[in-house]
Amino acid sequence: MSEVFKELSKGEAVTAGLRKVTDDMKTKNRADRTGAVPAITKAEKEAAVAPVKSVVKKPVFELQMTEVSKVEHQVGNTELFIDDTNPRQSVYVFGCKDSVIHVKGKVNNITVDKSVKTALVFSDVVAACEIVNCTSVEVQCQGSAPTIAIDNTNGCQLYLSANSLHASITTAKSSEVNVMVPGATPEADLGTSHGQGFFAVFSMQ
Predict the structure, then answer these.
(1) DSSP state letters, 27-52
(2) I want to staple 198 with a disulfide (CB 3.0 to 4.6 A). Which of 140, 168, 180, 185 is the partner?
(3) Rounded mean pLDDT of 158-171?
(4) Distance CA 205, CA 202 (A)
């Protein structure tokens, strides 16, 4: 440390050995510095603002291993009928829009996931019917269902038959859920769903 202070005590002599910066070495005087911002080409502009194209996935409508019926990525299809059913079978509806799914006969369970403006009409389920991550959907039970669960869904019109009035209905993180039951008389009905009259009883928020 004493050597450092000894050098500093020399005053101006301490900088005598340093190389001086000439005018042509200064940034403002460099010949290769124009000060202009490089122009962006039209192709670069279009690439920067080009919208990301949505991937259209292939629609699926099939029965797998006689146990699971899959209905996926259907758009604008109102004639989706699942007729070959059994009490052990599951139905899984995913990513559908503006479509109607009809499930005939008794199945074990039905799940509708991430679908928009889609309707489900089913007869009977042994376990449960689940609606998750959906927007503006309609569900009609024409037979019986022990449990109907609605989770993380915005807008669900649920139509119950006389045989499904005992169903346990649960909701979580959902809004605009309306439950409809048959009117006592045809005149009492305020609306119809697939040929059967219903009137609103209560809303579940």
Answers:
(1) GGG-TT---PPPPPPHHHHHHHHPPP
(2) 180
(3) 93
(4) 10
Give the separation between CA 204 and CA 151, rounded to whole angstroms: 12
What does the pLDDT read at residue 55? 74
Q: Are 131 and 147 in contact (CB under 8 A)?
A: no
4 pLDDT higher than 60: no
Q: Within 10 A of 96 (CB to CB), how many other CB atoms are there?
A: 29
Q: Please, which contacts does 139-145 make with residues 24 or more away whose CB atoms are closer than 8 Å?
A: 139/112, 140/193, 140/194, 140/196, 141/167, 142/196, 143/106
Q: Which of 143, 64, 80 shows the shortest CA–CA distance to 115?
A: 80
Integer-rounded Cα Rg, in Å, for the chain is 35
Q: Tell me if 135 sits within 8 A of 113, measured CB to CB.
A: no
Report the pLDDT value the prediction gives residue 57, as an integer from 0 to 100: 86
Distance in angstroms (rounded) separating the CA atoms of residues 90 and 125: 9
Give the C-alpha distances (Å, rounded to integers) separating 111 from 45, 131, 147: 45, 6, 12
Kindly state the average pLDDT of the residues 161-182: 92
